[in-house]
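Tutorial handout. Part one gives the primary structure; part two gives the three-dimensional structure as tokens.
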Amino acid sequence: MRRANRGVRGFSLLEVVVTLAVLSISLTVLFRVFSSVTMTAGMTSDYFEALKIAETRMSLLAEKASLSSSGTVDDYYHWKARVERYTAGFENKLPGGQSLLDIGSGNVPYLLTVSVSWGSNRKREVELSTIRLGMTP
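Part two.
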């Protein structure tokens, strides 16, 4: 009988336990990677949707030139838009002494800002700003 058992090889219990441990750790790591990729894809989608809303609101704000407004889109994205006179931190003179922005000609600079927030407690936010000349709110 001893001769018959010598030729048969199998896995020991220790080898099976170690293999199962390595497999379970590997599967756990893979699951975490896939779940983080899925979550990141969802956040990216939300970000691009908020950016589209902000760009749309910015173009409407430039047309209407209202002082401020706010609203919601799909009860998830909350936006705020405002127009305020821009006061630059630079000297308004060209080298020849001529004014860079001739206020009398209607070239008054205005700062347009649109911010969109979303998520639980509005933790995420995107903000767009630009300066336009000649707008009169």
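Part three, for discussion. The two ends are 101 Å apart (CA to CA). Helices lie at 2-6, 13-64.
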